[in-house]
Design a protein that fits this description.
By secondary structure, the protein is mostly beta strands. About 10% of the residues lie in helices and about 55% in strands. The two termini are about 45 Å apart.
Length: about 725
């Protein structure tokens, strides 16, 4: 309650500051703020120009100005501004699965798209080249395919582009936990007629760990881009991203063994038993080295006033090598001894060795804007080829057990210790059970069409369809050969928007679809394989969108219902330990969301949202979870806000103050009829201030202002950083 009172008092003060006189210059600044915080019109979400109020899909966007004001340096931290999104797992850096994982509408998702094309980053995503982050809600396979979309939504990074003037910005920052960062943004025209433009953003960050002062993580990013306006009809864009990280992953605690019989139903119980929120249970040197290279090229051709062509080629490559500590909370006997009540940690590792994941994508889009019988049609017709190559090698082991209490030296679990363990089993039969190669190839061919017709003023009807064919070439998964197969699916989409009040208030509804190919699965105890049908998700959604007070308020309220069928469910195990599955699972996820972006008082902007999600298994072979919320569905209730006040004239002009926060209800990471285990609710406050002048900018932020102990995770418990203060100075050339 004290935290809520603090929030209300600060916001009241900020609002009071906002009562000042207007001026011409203030109006220009006002428009910049409105464009950054409020407007969500764009091309990316439906691959055609649609204003937010006439778009039947729900989406959130975060502009770079919001990131600058809040002194946010990574995409992973920027997620705090997205309604209905909860971060579940921070990045580990492993190729293929090392990026941060989030939850949207009860389903796991992660960063996957850059400028609408497949470009995942297997590690912490630096925001140095981010112009805007878009989060499209609901199943989105119709326009973006099945490979990288989640049933809850898809995340798209829109990158900075070169512009036609010479400018530069250098920033230095430092803060808690040995945090130091240097970044630069340099832009320059390369020709006198400014037809060729160049821009490069780069950053280097080093930081520690709030649980271990000896950890030294470092992150390097460089993102050059070049644009060439060939003539009035043709322009060319080329971009490159390099993210090179060396980091030790955060402590992820898996829950194993009979915890419920000892009275442990939540993380607070384990903390009372000795689990220390602030303690590091590992020593030094357990780093993973990860690298991502993304190369993007695009040619845009204006055929005439009504037809435009866009041809894009994208190459994405991730690599990792090194350690990845894992922890399992259980008793020393792992439940074998009923008298064993000493709860502690089995410490283990899941390393990667020269692991690689590659994508090559070629996409062609034609955009049409024309009238038939007086009715406007906006159409996109496209084709897409995606080649995927996995060449990954994992090796793992559970190495020792340590209790939570007692005089223990936890630092002995270090790089030398783990390396000696692997060397001791490398030439023994145990090594074969400790390795997991993942090698496969696939080609995906897609074609899609989407049309928005406006039969009468204020009414827009969207119809869209995608056909996708996946040609899996076979490969190796663990000790098992995976056969080749070809599988195809259709993905339809329908949307309707009617403006009840022109340009101000609309009612909308949509049907959206996604699918996923699960390939072959073990269907009996004899290890026979069967080819699964594509898993499918269908969403029905409706709500209202508002764009009020001359564009100063943008709001959405909506209800959605997502049904998923054909999921694989485990029904037993073979003698070799492989899961035996049946394709009969069904799941439902439904909920409501409210998002508001506002600029009601001069200098005062607000981002706020509230969401509720109800997810459950509706058909399953496991009776212990039937009707229960999945343990990966995150917290049912989520809320977020960020309020910023900028003095836009007067003696304090250039000074900005901000306060933000995130609330999440309890998260059940184990949820069956035989027991539950939950992470408690949390409310985290963040504050920031900045002073922005023509030649320089000073910034200060305090994340987790009240030093909240809070945990995130799905099937895991991951302690999050305590109070973190960072200051910065930037100089503008």
């Amino acid at each position: 309650m004290k935290k809520l009172i603090l929030s209300a008092s600060v916001l009241s003060s900020i609002t009071a500051f906002g009562q000042q006189k207007d001026s011409v210059k203030t109006q220009r600044i006002d428009q910049v703020i409105i464009d950054a915080y409020i407007k969500k019109d764009g091309v990316s979400t439906n691959k055609m120009p649609l204003r937010a109020i006439e778009n039947p899909q729900v989406y959130s966007s975060i502009d770079r100005v919001a990131l600058e004001n809040q002194l946010i340096f990574t995409v992973d931290d920027a997620y705090r501004n997205v309604t209905g999104l909860q971060k579940m797992w921070n990045a580990t850096g492993r190729a293929g699965d090392g990026g941060a994982f989030v939850n949207l509408r009860g389903f796991i998702s992660n960063n996957s798209l850059r400028n609408g094309l497949v470009a995942p980053v297997s590690g912490t995503v630096d925001a140095v080249n981010i112009e805007k982050i878009e989060v499209l809600k609901g199943p989105s396979a119709t326009l973006y395919g099945s490979n990288v979309t989640s049933y809850g939504g898809v995340i798209n990074r829109v990158t900075k582009k070169p512009y036609d003037s010479l400018a530069a910005n250098v920033l230095l920052s430092a803060g808690s936990y040995n945090f130091y960062r240097a970044q630069a943004d340099v832009n320059a025209p390369l020709t006198k007629d400014k037809s060729v433009l160049f821009r490069v953003n780069t950053a280097y960050t080093t930081e520690g760990n709030f649980q271990n002062s000896k950890v030294h993580n470092n992150y390097f990013a460089i993102t050059p881009s070049l644009s060439w306006k060939v003539n009035d009809k043709v322009d060319v864009n080329v971009e490159y991203e390099l993210f090179d990280n060396k980091a030790q992953a955060e402590q992820n605690f898996f829950l194993m063994g009979p915890l419920s019989q000892f009275g442990y139903s939540g993380i607070k119980d384990l903390e009372n038993a000795g689990l220390d929120y602030k303690k590091s249970y590992v020593g030094s040197g357990l780093y993973n080295k990860g690298r991502t290279n993304n190369l993007f090229g695009q040619v845009n051709y204006k055929i005439n006033e009504h037809i435009r062509s866009s041809t894009a080629v994208n190459s994405a490559h991730s690599y990792s090598n090194g350690f990845n500590p894992y922890f399992y909370i259980t008793t020393k006997s792992y439940g074998a001894d009923a008298n064993d009540k000493e709860v502690g940690l089995y410490r283990g590792d899941q390393s990667t060795e020269d692991s690689k994941q590659r994508y090559l994508q070629v996409q062609q889009n034609f955009n049409f804007d024309f009238h038939i019988a007086g009715m406007r049609n906006r159409t996109v017709v496209g084709g897409d080829y995606l080649r995927t190559r996995n060449d990954q090698f994992f090796y793992f082991g559970v190495i020792d057990f340590v209790p939570f209490t007692g005089d223990m030296d936890y630092t002995n679990f270090n790089a030398d210790y783990v390396t000696k363990y692997y060397n001791s089993i490398r030439n023994t039969p145990a090594w074969d059970g400790s390795i997991w190669p993942l090698k496969n190839k696939s080609n995906t061919y897609s074609a899609y069409v989407s049309n928005v017709i406006t039969p009468i003023a204020g009414l827009n009807i969207m119809t869209a369809m995608r056909y996708e064919s996946i040609q899996f070439k076979g490969g190796v998964k663990g000790a098992n050969e995976t056969p080749a197969y070809t599988q195809s699916a259709w993905s339809p989409k329908l949307g309707l928007v009617y403006e009840l009040i022109k340009d101000k208030l609309s009612v909308f509804g949509n049907y959206q679809n996604s699918f996923m190919s699960n390939g072959y699965f073990v269907s009996d105890t004899a290890s026979n394989l069967s080819l699964s049908d594509p898993e499918k998700a269908n969403q029905l959604e409706g709500g209202f969108k508002a764009d009020l007070w001359h564009g100063k308020v943008n709001a959405t309220v909506n209800y959605y219902n997502i049904d998923v069928k054909n999921t694989l469910q485990t029904i037993g195990y073979t003698t070799q330990g492989r899961a035996v599955e049946q394709q009969m699972g069904k799941r439902n996820s439904r909920g409501v969301e409210l998002e508001v972006n506002a600029y009601l008082v001069k200098g005062f902007s607000l981002i706020a949202g509230l969401s509720y999600n109800d997810s459950k298994f509706t058909e399953t072979t496991d009776a212990t979870v039937l009707g229960k919320r999945p343990n990966t569905a995150s917290s049912p209730w989520l809320a977020n806000f960020n309020a910023t006040y900028q003095f836009v004239d007067g003696n304090l002009k250039g000074l900005g103050l901000g306060l933000g926060g995130n609330y999440a209800s309890a998260n059940k990471i184990i949820n069956t009829t035989v027991g539950t285990f939950e992470l408690p609710q949390y409310f985290v406050l963040n504050a920031n201030a900045f002073y922005d002048k023509r030649k320089f900018r000073i910034g200060l932020k305090a994340d987790n202002l009240t030093n909240e102990h809070y945990w995130i995770g799905y099937t895991t418990a991951n302690a999050q950083r305590l109070l973190n203060v960072v200051g910065s100075f930037s100089y503008k050339f």
